[in-house]
Amino acid sequence: MEQFEPKIIALVCNWCTYTAADLAGTSRLQYPANIRMIRMMCTGMIDSKYILKAFLSGADGVFVGGCHPGDCHYIDGNLKAGKRIPGVGKILEQFGFEPDRLKLKWIGASEGPEFQKYMTEFVDTIKTLGPSQVRDRMIL
Amino acid sequence: MGTDTETKRKQSAVKEKAPLRPVESPMDICLGCGTCSAGCAMTGVDGFDPRKIVRKVLMGRDAELVGSKLPWICTMCGKCEHACPMGINIVNMIRTLRGMVDRDKVPGMIQKGVELCLETGNNLGLPAEDFTFIIEDVAAEMAEEPGFEGFTVPIDKKGANLLHTLHNKLVNTQNEDLVHWWKIFHMAGEDFTIPSENWEGVNWGLFSGDDESMKIVVGRIVEHMDRLEIKNLMYPE
Amino acid sequence: MTEEMTSKADRISTPVNIVVAGAGITGIRTAIDFAASGYKVLLVDKAMHGGGILTRLDHQFPNDHCGMCRMLPMIDRGTDKETCLRRGLFHENILTCYSTEVVAVDGKAGDLAVNLSVVPTGVDKTRCSGCGECERVCPVMVPDHFNGDWVNRKAIFLPTPHLSPDSRVIDWQACTSCGACVEVCPTHAITLNGEREQVELKGVYAVVLARGVNLYDPALTDVYGYGVLPNVVTATDFERIMSSSGPYQGEMMRPSDGKPIKKIAWIQCVGSRNVMIGADFCSSVCCMFAVKEAILAKQKMGKESDAVIFYMDMRTFGRDFQRYKDEAENVKGIRFVRMRVHSIQLHENTDDLLISYVNKDGEQVDEIFDLVVLSTGRKKDFLTCDWAEADGVFQVDRLPGFKDIADSVVGASAISEQVLRMIHQQNLKPDKNESDHSPDISFVERRPSYITVLCDCNTSLSNPIDFQKLENTIHALSSGHQILRVEQACSKEGWQTIRKAIMDGQANRCLIMACDAAVDFSRKREFTNELGFPVSFVDLLDVVSLVRRFQEGEDATDTVSKEVFMRLNRLGTRSYASPLKQAQVKTVLVIGGGPAGLQAASVLAAHGFTVKLVEKTDRLGGKLAQIEESDLKQHVEKMLAGVNKNPQIDVYLETEVIQTSGRPGVCMTKLKHASGETRIIHHGATILATGGKEVDTSASVVSESHERIITGFDMDAMLKANDSDLVKGPVSTVVMIQCVGSRQEPNNYCSRICCLKSLKNAIRIKDLHPETDIYIFYRDIMTYGNSEILYTEARKKGVLFIPFDTDNPPRINMASGAIIIEGDDPFLGEPVQIKADWLALATGVMPNDVSDLKQVFSFETTQDGFIQEADSKWRPVDTERVGVFVCGLARTPARLDEVLLEANAAAQRVLTLLEKDHTSYSPVTARVRNAICSVCGICIEVCPYQARYMDEDRRVVHVDNLACQGCGTCAAECPNNATVLGEYEDHGVMSMIESSL
Predict the structure, then answer these.
(1) Residue B83 and residue B36 in contact, taking contact as beta carbons nearer than 8 Å
(2) C31-40 per-position pLDDT tens digit
(3) How many Cα atoms within 13 Å fall on the side-chain side of residue C497?
């Protein structure tokens, strides 16, 4: 049986998290290829529907990475995301998605190792959960 | 304890008299940071604390300090001064306090030793003939050792290269230490001599804060140098 | 000359208007100030990287956050690369050049010849792909000063972890020229030639000297054992230990044996406040950074950990610092021990460290620590610079000092203003006219037509890519898609090939797949400025970074294909809207006629602005009467006279501001005179300089008044009056009590001027009456920076200082009719009782009431009533609202010289906003589709920049495009999707998501 390779979208903020992702790269900290990184200016701009779109388009997991509270370039965009994203999570749950498929983490600009860790852990989590049921049940 | 702070702060004589180190810091500059107390080996012993002593001096409480044991607990090691960020001459302050104590209140043997030295030229009060006897006796013993045959100690030798002063214990309880010195001098071919009188190398006026007596004892050695026309002085203490 | 040097020299010699020497935070701030006004800046630094000391710290006090990126321009955002500043400073008007020194400056201000000495890095930045092979093969290991001397690095290395692009550099002092790196470099980027080159620049308008600080080397103080004992590190070393980008990846392990750190001691005042080494100064920031480190460390170490700070005075003189420290002590469990430590010893046969100190009960105790951090301050000597006094050179600091971020940023902008004033007076324009970067509309509005450039440089990739397969994928996306294969996009030839293909072709969307260095910031600007591509129509895929996260040798083709596919899709969805230009009103409203307001008004008038100076009371000058320093007082008096005569400044006394509206650059404000008459003024920006006043909190310590119990302010006035009893004497005993009603709730902030005032008063009294006894009861003496000498002088003159804690303050006993102060002398461990002739209570300052103004401008105030800045460190004279600035006592307690600098800095911020005749805004701003807007107002609430407002009459929501920073929160929160963010519209983002799966 072919090993399940999850498709994961990572929505990361342009400032801290993207810098950390690059830092992970330059420090040769490897993380799985399953992650498709999409750079947003701020986690605050992540509309709930982007997450829903991601899942409906066949993503097995969605990771949201932003600056630590207080470090946000736009003052508090991340705090708003911090309220919004869990809300989306609750909605997803009601539709039968496992809550662990959506993850929000704060990652600082220096935190290359943390970035690697979260990515690797998230892929493992999704692997354990298996493919998203969307693929079977929806005609895309 | 009780301090008379209702009246004005007294001027401290210690503050005025204690000599300064190369970085000239008057004691007033003390920050009270506690560096001295933190590093002092005697902090806490019978209430000793260098910071407290400086503070009391600044508050004009000389009399209290002079009348206490505190100035004598200090080992004058200088560890406090080494680290004091303000460059305060703590050791000199202690010594000046000691100097202000009545001589009959100076603890232990120190004052006795000073007096004996002034009177007799050494801290033990050892008479000159006894001194010479001991020296010659120890020298003769050394001469019996192989390699040192014929060794004698030149005493009061005019024109010698080096004048050597002695710690009084060397002629009291620790004669063998004399031998160490002499063996080195002998093997090195050193033209040394020791004075027959006023030979004391330990100047206890240093410890009792007594500059006057220090001057006299040092003066005697200088006088030897002049009289015996010796250029070099070895003063191990 | 090597290729690297040729390109460096070429780049440098393009017209440079201003040279900034020193690329720390201060230099960066001034460079951005100039660049924002259109001037070409050359930013240099002796070091191999920019950013100065702050590149080593992740978070800063007093809020434990970073926010460096908030220094980037807020308007004209398209001119810079919006990215974390630690990666580098990229602005179209700034050229950065490291390992470069200014060696000579000749000529007159406005027309200088500047000689630079440039050391090549050995690595051509435009070629280096950051593969790191050179580092791997380099045989030389040397101490890594960036991370801590016990850590090693190679002679060829990455100077700071975040650097982007991550080109290596060579440390010539370590390099043995063995050539191993040259052989192994896949792009032939290395040339082993470290010879300095001289570059001469002509026609430079000004040079800014932003020297910064060198840190004291604690190895010079033998008692701490730095470099001898294990696990004794400096504060900056410790920042690296804590950092995830540091030698231990953020694990709290100690250098000698990797043991987890659980118990840390900080020793303050290392190299400072030490007369023995000639350092009679305070380094100002060490108290605060130690508190910050302790807080962050304790968080990381978890429970069962101990963080102890050994200090003499806790200098929490900034507005928010005292509460920060209190929280550290009372909530976060940091221990503060008031004692300067003698020395550090090794504990028995371990790598643990022993510190002895004397506790509050006078007992000597020993404590064992895993790690000791030395809070090293600045070196005592100023960095030498023999051209510093030349004409046309502007020094940010004339005296050495170690300033925190806020003070550095203020000082930087204050100097920028001075430089620009000189430049304007000489009528020197920015070198390049504000050209219209708008691309050709037909180009933009055509159907997307793509060109994808694939750099063939497989040699620097650790994983193979099947280019044929890649091309097939691309062709499948769209027909007519042009694909260009180049060898080494980084090289000159490669780049020319790309340019030619684009100019000859029809493409109006371009994706370049190469490495980060090949298409650096300046090359990307070429697309916009010369090839007419809007910034958003070009994308660079850094394929080297992308494949790095794979295992060695793994086939990356699929992932790269997917990424290319996604990027191309995204490019296709981009649209373009010409930036609208807005005419600016060159008038500034200054509210408050005290020293801060007068300074701001005078400076702005000197730049040609019209100023409306509004003052509530019936006279200008504010607290002029209380100024002590005669030269400062004269300065303010002169300004006052000048302001009254200046035809550009309209003064409105007994007037208040009652209403305002508009947007940055175009505002309308209504003023009301005490008589009831109103008028409307038009202006482009506002400066709040509403000031503060002394607050008499004597009642908190004395129950009844007494003619000889006065405030520090009163005593100051009395000492100036030659006929006062205090001056005439005799005076037997004077007592002063500091921090009366300050630094504890409800006024839990330091008023910053009281310690200085008391010390000056004490010195003055001693000079008049040497026999007077003076006692000062204090909590912490706030003589930060060079004012430490006043504290030393006071002690020298015989003033006695008695510290107290908030739980045991001195008590004033007037029962007998005399003034008796009762307290405890903690050094002696004895009670103290002093009868005083005079008692001076050091009461503090408070801001003037701004509650009315707050309604008008909607700014925030702190819990103490100070006007809240946008960011207390990085934007200290901005309020949240673009175009409204604040300075002086209105914002924070400060000394007069600091206030005047702030006023200059606020004026500078106005310049940046209003200097140009028009200003345009970035396409990445929000807009409203009014047809589907339900006018719920949520977007207005969530905007962190107050950049949205409701037109109440028409029930329409508007976006203030100048203020909008493009965060997109409004778009995400809007329930109807009526608000969209330019460049990040839903369809674009959704398409990107879809195409990536």
Answers:
(1) yes
(2) 999 999 989 9
(3) 18
- C655 pLDDT band (50/70/90 cuts)? very high
3-state SS class at C983 = coil
Partners of A110 on chain C (C-beta within 8 Å) are: 58, 161-162, 243-246, 250
Which of C64, C162, C971 is opposite residue A19, by nearest beta carbon? Answer: C162
Q: Do A77 and C83 touch (CB under 8 A)?
A: no
* Residue whose entry in the numeric block shows the structure tokens 């589709």: C929
Same domain, B55 and B72: yes
Q: From the list B3, B6, B9, which residue is nearest C830 (CB)? A: B3
Judge: A9–C965 Cβ closer than 8 Å, yes or no. Answer: no
Query: Which residues of C75-176 form beta strands (DSSP E)?
Result: 94-98, 100-108, 111-118, 141-144, 148-154, 156-157, 169-170
pLDDT digits over C103-155, tens only?
999 999 999 999 999 999 999 888 888 888 999 999 999 999 999 888 999 99
Q: How close does chain B come to C336, measured CA to CA in Å?
A: 14
Instruction: Tell me what ipTM this predicted complex has.
Output: 0.93
Which residues 6+ apart lie within 8 Å of C72 measured at CB? C32, C80, C82, C85
Say whether both B144 and B87 belong to one domain.
no
Predicted pLDDT at C459:
60
Reported as a single tens digit per residue, the pLDDT across C936-971 is 999 999 999 989 988 888 889 999 888 899 999 999
Q: Distance between CA atoms of C154 and C151, rounded to whole angstroms?
A: 11
C228 touches chain B (CB under 8 A): no
Please check whether residue B37 lies inside any domain of the structure: yes
Residues of C in contact with B78 (CB under 8 A): none
| Domains by residue range for chain A, with CATH | 8-137 (3.40.50)
Report the C-alpha gap between A128 and A60 in whole angstroms: 11
* Residue predicted with more confidence, C579 or C725: C725
Looking at the partner chain, which of C69, C250, C545 has a beta carbon nearest the beta carbon of A22? C545
Length of chain C: 997
Q: Is B182 in the same domain as B210?
A: yes
The H-or-E segment that residue C522 falls in is helix C521-529
Q: What is the CA radius of gyration of chain B?
A: 22
Q: Quick one: B119 and B53 in the same domain? A: no
Contact (Cβ atoms closer than 8 angstroms) between residue B23 and residue B51: no
Residue C432 has pLDDT above 80, yes or no: no
CA–CA dist C520, C495 (Å, integer): 11
Q: Which long-range contacts (CB under 8 A, 24 or more apart) does C361-368 make?
A: C361/C829, C362/B44, C362/B49, C362/B52, C362/C829, C363/B44, C364/B37, C364/B38, C364/B40, C364/B43, C364/B44, C367/C265, C367/C308, C368/C263
- The answer to whether A56 faces chain C, any CB pair under 8 Å, is no
Looking at domain C218-376, its CATH architecture is 3-Layer(bba) Sandwich (3.50)
Residues 6+ apart with CB under 8 A from A24: A31, A112, A113, A115, A116, C549
Q: What are phi and psi of C266, to 5 degrees?
A: -105, 135
Provide the whole-model pTM.
Answer: 0.92
The length of chain B is 237
Predicted pLDDT of residue B3 = 42
As a whole number of angstroms, the distance between CA C596 and CA C891 comes to 11
For strands C800-803 and C948-951, give the pairing.
unpaired
Torsions phi, psi for C899 (to 5 deg): -60, -45
Fold category of C696-843 in CATH: FAD/NAD(P)-binding domain (3.50.50)
Burial class from Cβ neighbours inside 10 Å (0-12, 13-18, 19+) for residue A126 reads buried
Residue with tokens 């852990």: A121
Q: What is the pLDDT of residues C500-547, one digit of tens each?
A: 988 888 888 999 988 877 777 778 777 777 888 887 888 888 887 777
Spatial separation of the C-alpha atoms in residues B178 and B182, rounded to whole Å: 6
Taking contacts as CB-CB distances below 8 angstroms, the residues of chain C near B82 are 223
